[in-house]
Each structure stands twice: as C-alpha cells, then as structure tokens.
Amino acid sequence: MKFKYTILLFAWVISSSLSHASDFDSLSELIQKGKETEAIAKINRYIQKYPNDPKVKFIYGATLDHFGRTQEAKKVFLHLNRKYPNNPTIKNNLGVLYAKLGEYSAAYTFFGSALRLKPNYQEAKNNQWLVQQKIN
Asked: CA 44, CA 47: separation in Å to the nearest integer?
C-alpha cells in the first residue's frame, strides 16, 4: 500500500521554490545520493537565513521522512499545520506520515480535513480510501 505525497520529486520542489538560493544548488543531488547529514545541514543553513520561509520547512519535513525520520517529519508538518491551517497540501502530507506510522485514524482525519478544504483533491481522496481499507 503506497500513500501519495503531494510533491514526489525533490528536484522539482527544490528547483521550483529555492532556485534563487545558491546554498541549494546541490541539495537535490545530496538527497538522491543518500547524503542525509549534508542535505539536512544545507536545509538548516537555509532555515537560519530565512526562518519564516514555509517552503524550506516543507522540504525539511519531506527530507526527514525520505531518510526514515518520520516522527521528526511529523513534528515539522504539525508545526506547518498550526501556522497554515487552511493548507490542504500540508494536511495530506500529515495524513501520509500518520499512515506510515500506522496511526490510521489520525491519517483518515487529516485526509478528510484536506478534502474539506479542497473537495477535488485526488491524492487526498486516494489516500483516504487506502486508509479506510486499513481501518476496516
């Protein structure tokens, strides 16, 4: 069973949101090569420079999860959810993280929240259906 993140390709995320930052020229490559320490260090430097940039925090959470640090990623996305409560993308990704952790009831709730904000959100619909299969 594979849940879907809203943003799947780190290279696309990085190039579309952070291409102006020279610090991130090689972030995608670091992630793809599995260089966790270096990738996280680059993201942390960017967070220090631009502490209010939600895109970099989104990338930080996704990167943590990519490297198997799902609990930490969940904390990042919970923080983003508190700061941006009307963002269905954040809610969908929180649902995915909860589902990965086996917390299906919470995942179902987050997918439902994403769908209330964006009723035609296909990934959230698919993810909610997958969680429903696990719950039943």
From this structure: 5
Residues 134, 84 within the same domain:
yes
Confidence of residue 32 (pLDDT cuts 50, 70, 90): confident
H/E element holding 10?
Answer: helix 10-18
Number of domains observed in the structure of the chain: 2
80 and 125 housed in the same domain? yes
Residue type at 95?
G
124 within some domain: yes
Nearest to 33 by CA among 7, 3, 66: 66
Characterise 92 by phi-psi region: left (phi > 0), alpha (psi -120 to 50), beta (else).
Answer: alpha
Rounded CA separation 136/126 (Å): 16
Give the domain range for residue 52: 8-68
Residue 2 zone, left/alpha/beta (φ > 0; ψ -120 to 50; rest): beta
Domain-located, residue 1: no
Residues 75, 63: one domain? no
Model confidence at 14, in pLDDT bands (50, 70, 90)? very low
